[in-house]
Structure formats: structure tokens, C-alpha cells
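2024-03-11 09:14:02 INFO receiving multi-entity request
2024-03-11 09:14:02 INFO entity count = two
2024-03-11 09:14:03 INFO echoing inputs for audit
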Amino acid sequence: MGRFKQKNDKGAPSLNMGSMSDIIFMLLFFFMVITTMRESSLYVKITVPKGTEVTKLERKSLVSYINIGIPLDAKYGTEPRLQLDDQIANVDNVRDFVESEKTARTEEESNLLTFAIKADGKVKMGMISDIKQELRNAGALKIFYNASKDASK
Amino acid sequence: MGKKSTPGLNTSAMSDISFLLLAFFLMTSNINTDMGIARRLPPPLPPDFEKPEVRERNIFQVKINRNDMILFNKEVGDISLLKQRAKEFLGNPTNSPDLPEKVDMQIDYLGTYPVSKGVISLQNDRGTSYEAYFKVQNELTAAINEMRDELSRAKFSKAYKDLDQPHKEAIDKAIPVAISEAEPKGGK
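2024-03-11 09:21:47 INFO inference complete, emitting structure
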């Protein structure tokens, strides 16, 4: 008897934490792969309108954004302006923007290119119609009106 | 002297660091959450283009003025009625002579289906707000989506969103997005 020694100084056994960081790293890589970085910071204030029939925008690599809203920086005035890529621009620049977006992609992909119009609800349609006309003339026919899901209905 | 193994490092702080990194990436990135309505613009018109003759019964006019008031069927109406009216117009269930004509078309999976010749003509002022315009687009899309869903349930006893791609295309052909946008009125 007395072969099995009873330990009396037993606290909680220490866990090996070495693999914990591996798991967290795995999670980290998972999130890095499925998410996209916020591409460009917005220089215009945008509150998109709400809708009930909204669908998801597919294939983000084939989407270019046209942001329209009131500039955050007062030096661009208080009237709604549009932001292409990383700069405040005018309606006349839309055509060049379409061209540069198209040449950045292969020919097949440039036909599938979607232009997402992300506009503030208070922007007047005159501006948006001008942009649509420019897009049409530049041969960019796939467009997308950004909106948020109206959860109240 | 025997070979000594390297002393074990305390790695529990490593997981704290990687948690920090994880939290950083969660905050700076965004999961695909862009929602909205997709549309196709008509291609630019050739200069010698002539306006096609469209019978009045085939047109449903929706106008939005600079005060965001909506006019359809030649009277000022509330946006909550628009969806119902658009459905009545595009569906024409009683084959009324005031509502659009239908053309029998051969469509895969559906056989011969009477496709409506109706076109919703949407016109806005340059002073219309984007929000009002979008609300109208949303209602019109809702009308078309509901009609597609009804047809899908009647023909395939399935919701439209649960159909596979070829069946969806068949339904899309039977109920096309017939929205035509006129040039906006009103000077700059």
C-alpha cells in the first residue's frame, strides 16, 4: 500500500497554450482572405437611400465606384461633387475614368465591368443623369445603384 | 554533461498578440456588404435613329417632379400605390384593351408564354432628389420581382430565388425588366 502518492499541492493543471496562437493565426488568415481592405477613403459624405429590393453586388474585383455627395472638405465647396478613385472630380472626368478602368483589365473582364453609383439621397438627379449619359457614351452599360437594406419592412 | 534542451518559452502572450492582430483586421476590413439595384443602360443611339411607334396602351408613364411628387397614370399618386399599379399594368390579367398587348413567345421550360409588350416609362426632373428616384426604382423592381415570383410558383412551384440559373433565365425572359428612362426635363 501507499504505492500511489496522493499529491496534495494540486492547483489547476497548467494548460499548454502553445497551439492557441496557431488557432488564432488561422482565424486571422481566414479573415484576411475573405475580407477586403477599405479601398479608398471617402472624401464625400454619403448616406445611401434605403430600399427593400436590394441585391448583393457580386464580383467585387469587377466593380468601380462612382461616389457622389457633399465634400467633407469645405475647400471643394458645399455642392455635391463626385469622387473617382481617390480624388474629387467633375462629370467630364467620368469618361476618362471609364477608359482607365477598362484598360486596367483584360478585354473579357472589361465587358463585365460594373459601375456602382454610390450617391447620397439628397443629390439631384440632374447630376446623376449626366453621369449616366457619360457612362452610356463611354460604353459602360452595367450600372448599380448602391443602397442599404430597409429592415423596417 | 548531458545535452540540455532549450528552455520552454512562455508562448501564452503570443496568442494575445495574434488576437490583437485579428481584432485589427476585423476593424479595418469590411466583408462584402454592398447592396443595391443593378440596372443596364441602353446602348448609345445611332444618329439616324427614329423613335419607334408605341401604342399608348403599352406605356405606363411615371414622372417625378422637382418636388419629388410622383405622377403615374396621368394623376398624382402616392408611392405606396405604385407597385400595385405597375403589376396591374405589366400583368394585364383580364386582357383589358386599355392595358398592354401580349405577344406569344416560345420560351424554354415555359412553352408558349404571352409576354407583355408594356413598357414603364420613367421620367424625372433634373431637380428630383436621388432618394425619390431610387424609391421609385425600388417599387418598380419590387413589382417585377413579385410577378417573377408568382410565375415561378405557378409554373415550377418554387420561389424565384430558389430556382437554378436556366429556369431563372426563362422567367426573366417571360417577365423582362421593361423600364425605359427618358431624358430628364428642366434646365440646369
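2024-03-11 09:21:48 INFO post-check: The CA atoms of residues 125 and 131 of chain A lie 10 Å apart.
2024-03-11 09:21:48 INFO post-check: Residues 44-149 of chain A form a domain with the Nucleotidyltransferase; domain 5 fold (CATH 3.30.420.270).
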